Known about the structure:
Elements: H1 2-25, H2 32-54, H3 58-83, H4 93-102, H5 106-120, H6 128-173, H7 175-185, H8 189-198, H9 204-213, H10 218-239, H11 251-271, H12 273-289
Helix pairs in contact: 1-2, 1-3, 2-3, 3-6, 4-5, 5-6, 6-7, 6-9, 6-10, 7-9, 8-10
Amino acid sequence: MKKKGLWIVISNILIFITIVLAMVLFLNKVEWYVQVLAYGATISFTTGSIIFYFKQNQEQVRSFFACNIITLIIVAVFTIFNLCGFFETFADLEKVRQKIQDAGIWGYIIFILLTILNVIVLPLPSFTFILIGLPIFGQLNTFIISYICFVIGAIICFFIGRLFGNKAVVWCIGKEKTEKYKNMLGAKGNFLFVMMQILPFFPDDLICMIAGLTSMKFLFFLFSMMIIKAIYIGLVCLLGTGTIIPFSGWGIPVWIAIAAVLIILFILFCKYQKQLETWYYNRKNKKNKN
């Protein structure tokens, strides 16, 4: 086993060195807690892989290796955005829009990367970059690009859970949130998963990662995401310009009414969640018997 796991440990050490160099050379001015998180993560994962290598626990070695790869990818993306000056402009979304517009043809690539990153790690509402893209690329192009990126991002989140397991998800979103949403999905998670994706109050990326930990079939996940995201992004592209329902005048009470309806739906869903699940699965079982 030691020979089999040795290349993983060596790779982990090389990843550790790469992350440290990137942090020292390119990300030394980011917030201190980001640096502590990055250093702490890669040190823990590298040390853990070495310890379990000598304990001859290959499964744990691979788990720590997977977590270190995720850390490397995140650090690499952050490094690219830092070099492009995006961290200085994230506080002002108008400046982000201007940077994308000024990038010309490269603006498409930057928009795609930002949208996928937003789905996976950036702590911004899912509609943020759709609204940024609308005045630059137009409704149709923004819809197509955002739709593809959202589905790709969701698939990545799903396979983080499915391939890398509970430890990787815990590292990404924390133990408390992992256990919370894992318990919520439970054994009858398909119906609840769909409702969580429809209602705007649940974190999409977290739910997709948790779905990867469950017994949910990938084809069901993919089919659900393709339909739900098409409707969601289509509505944002349609309404996000403010031409149908303006963000001023008579449009303000309409938007307030829409928000109130969504809040009521969320409260009703939380209150009657078990009844809805029971009704759904009883109906499904009757169809299967027939």
